[in-house]
Amino acid sequence: MSLARFLIKRLLQGVFVVWGVITIVFGLRVIAPGDPANVLLPPDVNPEVRQQVVADLGLNEPLYVQYWDFVTGIAAGVPEGLYNIVMGQPVGGLGLGTSLTTGTSVASRVGRSLPATLELAIMATVVAIIIAIPLGVVSATNRHSGPDYGATLFSLAGISTPNFWLGVMLIIVLSVQFNLFPTSQRAIGVPGIFDLLLAGQLEAAGDGFLTWLWYITLPAITLGTYFTALITRLTRSGMLDELGKTYVRASRAKGLPESLVRYKHVLRNTLIPIITVVGLQLGTLVGGAVITEFVFDWPGLGQVLINSINSRDWPMVQGSLIVISVGFVVVNIVVDTLYTLVNPRVGFD
Amino acid sequence: MSHTGHRDDLLRVEDLTTRFYTEEGQVNAVESVSFDVRDNEILGIVGESGSGKSVTALSAIDLVDSPGEVTGGEVWLRDAELAEEFRGESPDAVDGDFVDLRQLPKGVRRSLRGPKFSMIFQDPMSSFNPSLTVGEQIAEAVEVQRRASANPRSTRSRTQGYGLGKLLFDSVVPGREYTSDESRERAVELLDQVGIPDPVERAEEYPHQFSGGMLQRAMVAQALAGEPDVLFADEPTTALDVTIQAQILDLLRDIQQDRGMSVVLITHDLGVIARMCDRVGVMYAGEIVERGSLEAVFDEPTHPYTQGLLGSIPDVDDPAPRLEPIEGNVPNLIDSEMPDRCYFADRCPKAMESCLEHPEERAVEGEQGHTARCVLADGEYDPERALDESHFEGGDGE
């Protein structure tokens, strides 16, 4: 199967997955306690006004009508948004509606939070890969030595440390005691840095980048520690597994230097399953940075989600969840494509 | 070093001993094994599973992995250049044109794999890296030697100048792979020489796209890439269909004769030995119990184990009503359980009181180059002195 057909097939599957998510999210709103009208109105409101608000929100319609409106709204809004992007116009609401609390477009609020979450997830992944893979390699190739025991201890600690605790500890020690890093928030984002670059303010962009790095360090470490530990373990055990295979002995028998055997053969084969885990984990990080974002007051999707749940802002909750699920699906398609390119035994089918 | 060797000797292995340190205890996989490989011959090593045949070959070319370790012995290779190079530095490691590989630095030993030794394995499917093309893997073996001859100094370093950084860089930047176009062309030539049709196309395919027989041919091509003097073939046909087995054996012999190289053929199949080999060594419990020319060992077997092995082959012309098995089982080679007596005594129909002492390898009377690790080599069986069951505490054979 060709790459194009593979991608089309996976995208179609992805559409169905997202549809499923939309349905579940709708169902959650239906069964969750708390009437959205109560959020909007003071408790002692006139019942007629209340009736009017419920009717405006469409909440007095039968469920299937509400569901139909919700799904068709998104089904019409997304192509329109894509068209607007191509034409260089503002994206529009994507059928996600408006916030109950602020009255602003859900799509634009989520759109503004998304870069912060992506930055955090990607930085955490990059940190994890940079630390974990060399650590795993050293660990596996020096089995039962000091570095191996150190790496194993580190990964055990990393896997068992809850990240809300780690985040708070990092803040207390590095930010409060030693004043090395800011305690919270995000002073500038990657889109802001790009704006400065496009405006030709190179120096300001450089400063912005350093500031960004300064602010994102602690959240990225907090979010990435578990992931680092996980990949270290996977790399170590995967590499030990590969080193025991006959082809390694055959490569040595034909005279290859140890570096080629280790890196060109063994490490490459070890990375094949790791790509899958990294991809799945990246998807999880996009949705699962909620706690880290909360601890560091990081203005990402997780914050939006928590705040909107607290205020029963259902359109906002639905919008965030749908965007997170789309992110998950996209990441998985990218990973599967990469996996197929790296592993010749798996075809596009 | 003994000076009793044959003048065509290419490799003389003496008292090679390999131990595995496992959780169950020390395993004596190879016990004081001696053999020699001559120019332009096929030497067979035959024995049951677990008798130490493969580990013997791996020990000779320094490929034993942890928890195994070669703990003793000498591996003398005839190489005038190396002998000259090390004569001043380490005189103990040099004897005439021979060098003892066990006394040479590790890097030098590694550099000999490819141009001096190569090895093919039992299961071709697992002996290739599944995620690189067959052509690329053969080209690698060519490339190592190409770079080695271009820069002999770096040949012996552990990385050969290709550290992780360079490898990562090369794998990311297109057109900067490890192998060169010349090596890849040579790989196609090699595939052609081992009888693979459409070698240009097949070189671009992955191992899983090959059949077992074709892949074993490719394995042979890979082993030939460094133009080795000695090819160790470890059960090269065991994983293949019977019809394919014959083809691979023919290929091995043709290549051996065309190139005038030597082959050490390791197998449990006496038929393969009879068909292919000039000389043969029989292994039992980590030892070579008998060795000599094919005729000497097969026609006049001296060691009762060899006699038992040959007696267990069905004969089409003279079908015996029952095959004669060797009673009992192979010992498990764990050091603490190995007896002081001859390892075969428990199962031997001709065990005598003198077998309670572990026998040395001795020349078979009246035969040139035929030795056996058995008192019968230079003595007669005396039923008066036979051992009975009471000498073996709880033997396996009851």
By DSSP, the count of extended strands of chain A is 0
CATH topology type of the domain at 112-164 and 221-342 in chain A: MetI-like fold
CATH class of the domain at 112-164 and 221-342 in chain A: Mainly Alpha
CATH homologous superfamily of the domain at 112-164 and 221-342 in chain A, by name?
Answer: MetI-like
**What is the helical fraction of chain A, as a range of percent?**
over 70%
Mean pLDDT over the residues of chain B? 86
Classify the helix fraction of chain B into a percent range: 25-40%
- What percentage of the residues of chain A does DSSP assign to strands (E)? under 5%
Q: What is the string of SSEs of chain B from the N terminus onward? A: EEEHEHEEHEHHHHHHHEHEHEEHHEE
Beta strand count of chain B: 13
What structural category do the secondary elements of chain B indicate?
alpha/beta
The structure class of chain A reads: mainly alpha
